[in-house]
């Protein structure tokens, strides 16, 4: 068959489907075949380059090796290429991850804390894509158990700030740190915070928002170095998490709804947005939320002694490779290893398969966490397949 003949059997739609699954170098080589294939590549570049879907990390920090030793073992799952990378490595800093507490994910980085001794803890960032670790100085005199933390920017930037909030029977303590600085106490507030637990911390705009167990919301302004608790309480059925959206913070909650004849009741998800300019909570329009995709982590991993505290949760825009998941919620199931999916307009029985993540093996018993997409996803595969940077990587 002549070159012109077999090209004619492949429509541009089929060529596009093939090209979208190729690495950038292979895309470029394919585009040289003919003019129409070059046009397909140009369309792909213009329309759908950015990756918004988070990766999934399955992990075991204390896996037994064949020789009886301990190894650093985890698997990274790329939803864009539907490809996983198995990593087995004796990392020199492996001890850091044992019993470490995960707090947040941003730009491909994870923020952990680990109890050292007495009331001292250490914070560190880890990028599973590049194998980098960034440590902070020890943080002294902290109530580690109930503390929550988050961070503002990519930790490779000097302006990246980490905030740690904790409560005890008498006070709320806030400490912040920028890369290269020592932790410094910012706020020590007595009496009013007796008995409150911190449920979640999220960064949005210029604020770190803090959600308390008594359904109150507070915020720390990083520029003005001010702390404030806002009036009013959240609904009783609000989720114990808050996520950022366009500079504000979103708090999901569930509303009991019924059919027209009251024969059927179900829980419907609603969304409160805290408007930072007006300093008040408002119901967010579904038209706005349906242009987002929500990823929720399971609060508890059964049988897992390596992850303590809440895993990562966040919103991503329904753009790029997340476009077809618009208006959906993906979450880890606490009782089975599968990832579930439902729409924002869900009822309590509407959960279904996770679609873009259903290729991840359901029989994988390792704990799983969402990782916010890396800042430059086009460079990730090069790092993962480069043994000089991270030994013993293999794609499966």
Characteristic terms for this protein:
single chain, 396 residues, mainly beta, Neuraminidase, 5-stranded antiparallel beta sheet, 5-stranded mixed beta sheet, 7 helices, globular, KIB1-4_b-propeller, F-box-like_dom_sf
Brief digest:
By secondary structure, the chain is mostly beta strands. It has helices spanning 3-8, 12-20, 24-31, 35-47, 94-97, 286-289, 380-384, and strands at residues 55-64, 70-78, 83-89, 101-106, 109-117, 120-127, 132-135, 148-151, 161-167, 171-178, 184-190, 198-204, 207-212, 217-221, 226-229, 243-245, 248-258, 265-275, 280-283, 292-296, 314-317, 328-332, 339-343, 352-353, 368-371, 393-395.
Describe what you observe in this structure.
12% of the residues lie in helices and 40% in strands. A five-stranded antiparallel β-sheet has the order 25-1-2-3-26. Strands 21-20-22-23-24 form a five-stranded mixed β-sheet, with no helix packed on it. The protein is mainly beta. The chain starts with a helix and ends with a strand. The radius of gyration is 23 Å and the shape is globular. It has helices at residues 3-8, 12-20, 24-31, 35-47, 94-97, 286-289, 380-384, and strands at 55-64, 70-78, 83-89, 101-106, 109-117, 120-127, 132-135, 148-151, 161-167, 171-178, 184-190, 198-204, 207-212, 217-221, 226-229, 243-245, 248-258, 265-275, 280-283, 292-296, 314-317, 328-332, 339-343, 352-353, 368-371, 393-395. The chain folds into two domains: 3-47; 55-395, Neuraminidase.
């Amino acid at each position: 068959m002549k070159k012109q003949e077999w090209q004619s059997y492949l429509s541009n739609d089929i060529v596009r489907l093939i090209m979208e699954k190729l690495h950038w170098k292979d895309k470029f080589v394919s585009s040289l075949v003919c003019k129409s294939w070059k046009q397909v590549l140009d369309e792909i570049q213009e329309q759908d380059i950015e990756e918004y879907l988070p990766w999934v990390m399955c992990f075991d920090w204390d896996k037994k090796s064949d020789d009886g030793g301990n190894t650093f073992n985890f698997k990274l799952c790329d939803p864009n290429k539907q490809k996983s990378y198995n990593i087995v490595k004796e990392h020199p800093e492996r001890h850091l991850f044992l019993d470490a507490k995960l707090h947040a994910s941003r730009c491909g980085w994870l923020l952990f804390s680990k109890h050292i001794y007495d009331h001292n803890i250490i914070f560190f960032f880890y990028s599973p894509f590049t194998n980098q670790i960034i440590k902070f100085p020890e943080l002294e005199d902290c109530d580690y158990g109930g503390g929550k933390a988050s961070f503002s920017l990519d930790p490779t930037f000097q302006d990246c700030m980490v905030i740690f909030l904790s409560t005890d029977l008498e006070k709320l303590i806030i400490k912040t740190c920028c890369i290269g600085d020592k932790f410094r106490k910012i706020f020590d507030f007595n009496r009013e915070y007796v008995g409150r637990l911190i449920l979640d911390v999220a960064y949005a705009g210029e604020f770190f928002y803090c959600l308390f167990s008594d359904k109150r919301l507070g915020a720390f302004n990083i520029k003005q170095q001010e702390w404030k608790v806002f009036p009013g309480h959240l609904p009783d059925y609000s989720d114990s998490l808050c996520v950022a959206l366009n500079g504000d913070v979103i708090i999901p909650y569930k509303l009991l709804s019924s059919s027209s004849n009251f024969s059927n009741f179900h829980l419907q998800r609603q969304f409160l947005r805290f408007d930072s300019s007006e300093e008040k909570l408002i119901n967010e329009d579904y038209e706005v939320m349906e242009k987002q995709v929500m990823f929720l982590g399971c609060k508890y991993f059964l049988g897992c002694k390596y992850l303590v505290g809440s895993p990562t949760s966040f919103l991503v825009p329904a753009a790029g490779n997340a476009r077809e998941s618009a208006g959906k919620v993906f979450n880890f199931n606490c009782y089975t290893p599968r990832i579930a999916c439902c729409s924002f307009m869900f009822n309590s029985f509407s959960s279904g398969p996770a679609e873009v993540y259903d290729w991840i093996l359901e029989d994988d018993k390792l704990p799983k966490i969402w990782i916010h997409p890396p800042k430059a996803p086009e460079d990730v595969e090069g790092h993962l397949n480069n043994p000089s940077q991270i030994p013993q990587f293999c794609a499966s």
